[in-house]
């Protein structure tokens, strides 16, 4: 004998239909197309920031399009290739500069040549930065191939490469010169540079290439979000995470780089990681933002923010946000490699 459907059955049918309709009309989530511009090898926060990027890509939140390097040492590019390969993405384009700035090997780039039982501890295809293309070529090629307004750049080193991109002319690949190409393809840049809480502080990333920082501050045609020295030093990677959270493999390049840079116990400030977090998750409330305005860079390397006309803003942190950002970065940096999630 048939039974009449109950009111709950009608409700279930309505709910299922509503959910199906919502799924049909919901716009597809598109991962952020990310370029990572880094002076990797000078500090270990660059390495941890690259780990955060790979975790976010595995979550389907971004796609690492290219890595460009502003540290001029031949092991920097192979080191990046080894990290990318560790996370299963060894085909990501890598570009280098030949500026002569910070041309020392540093404390941990030698890991790329470490062998165990005659085999590379961290496999990689790129043997030397001498084999890598120029960063500015990689930047142009990557932007030309990208959809309009689809790219975000996280610059966590010197402004050398992005200033060079601004100076590029139209070529056989695109009729657009640097500024026009940037304006067409880039949504914004998230940059770790400057200091906005002390009037006379000379921040490292700016000081190492002052002319390029001045060019970027004056000429970059899209919004720029500055994560100053005061932001990254307020959040740090807990050394207990380095000592415990990377044990899922016998050797981990992030943890080993951290120890080689400065053995624990110490909590290294997360300068570069903050710029990556804002680049991929700008709408999660991790940071407060200054009013819009413009950053200027003096010949002494001192950065000054002036509110008013302009497309620049700098990041700020409340006490509650410091705790939240520290936790988010610790978990993301230590997340094991896994295949990228499919995004519908």
Report on the architecture of this protein.
The radius of gyration is 22 Å and the shape is globular. Mean pLDDT is 92; it is low at 1-28. The two termini are 43 Å apart. The longest helix has 19 residues, at 7-25. The strands form four sheets. An eight-stranded mixed beta sheet has the order 3-2-1-6-7-8-14-11, with helices on both faces. With 344 residues, the chain is of the alpha/beta class. The protein contains 13 helices and 14 strands. The protein has helices at 7-25, 45-58, 76-86, 135-145, 160-166, 178-185, 204-207, 210-219, 229-232, 239-244, 253-261, 271-280, 319-333, and strands at 32-38, 62-69, 94-96, 115-116, 119-120, 151-155, 186-192, 224-227, 236-237, 268-269, 288-289, 293-297, 303-307, 312-316.
List the SSEs and their pairings:
Elements: H1 7-25, E1 32-38, H2 45-58, E2 62-69, H3 76-86, E3 94-96, E4 115-116, E5 119-120, H4 135-145, E6 151-155, H5 160-166, H6 178-185, E7 186-192, H7 204-207, H8 210-219, E8 224-227, H9 229-232, E9 236-237, H10 239-244, H11 253-261, E10 268-269, H12 271-280, E11 288-289, E12 293-297, E13 303-307, E14 312-316, H13 319-333
Helix pairs in contact: 2-11, 2-12, 4-5, 5-8
Which descriptors would you attach to this protein?
37% helix; globular; two-stranded antiparallel sheet; 13 helices; 14 strands; 344 residues; alpha/beta
Describe the structure concisely:
This protein has 344 residues and is of the alpha/beta class. It is built from 13 helices and 14 strands.
């Amino acid at each position: 004998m048939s039974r009449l459907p109950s009111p709950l059955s009608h409700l279930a049918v309505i709910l299922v239909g509503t959910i199906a309709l919502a799924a049909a009309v919901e716009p597809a989530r598109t991962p952020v197309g990310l370029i990572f511009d880094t002076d990797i090898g000078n500090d270990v926060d660059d390495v941890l920031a690259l780990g955060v990027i790979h975790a976010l890509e595995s979550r389907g939140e971004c796609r690492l399009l290219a890595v460009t390097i502003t540290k001029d040492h031949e092991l920097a590019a192979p080191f990046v290739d080894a990290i990318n390969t560790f996370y299963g993405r060894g085909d990501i384009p890598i570009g280098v500069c030949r500026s002569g700035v910070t041309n020392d090997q540093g404390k941990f780039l030698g890991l790329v040549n470490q062998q165990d039982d005659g085999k590379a501890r961290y496999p990689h295809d790129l043997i030397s930065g001498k084999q890598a293309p120029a960063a500015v070529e990689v930047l142009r090629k990557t932007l030309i191939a990208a959809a309009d307004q689809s790219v975000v750049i996280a610059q966590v080193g010197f402004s050398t490469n992005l200033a060079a991109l601004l100076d590029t002319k139209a070529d056989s690949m695109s009729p657009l010169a640097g500024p026009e190409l940037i304006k067409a393809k880039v949504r914004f840049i998230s940059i770790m540079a400057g200091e906005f809480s002390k009037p006379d502080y000379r921040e490292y990333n700016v000081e190492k290439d002052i002319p390029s920082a001045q060019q970027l501050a004056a000429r970059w045609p899209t919004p720029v979000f500055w994560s100053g020295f005061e932001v990254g030093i307020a959040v740090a990677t807990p050394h207990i995470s380095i000592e415990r959270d990377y044990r899922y493999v016998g050797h981990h390049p992030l943890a080993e780089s951290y120890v080689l840079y400065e053995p624990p116990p110490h909590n290294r400030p997360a300068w570069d990681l903050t710029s990556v977090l804002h680049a991929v998750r700008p709408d999660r409330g991790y940071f407060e933002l200054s009013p819009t305005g413009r950053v200027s860079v003096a010949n002494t390397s001192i950065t000054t923010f002036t509110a008013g006309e302009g497309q620049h803003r700098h990041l700020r942190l409340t006490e509650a946000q410091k705790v939240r950002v520290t936790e988010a970065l610790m978990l993301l940096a230590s997340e094991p490699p896994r295949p990228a999630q499919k995004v519908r």
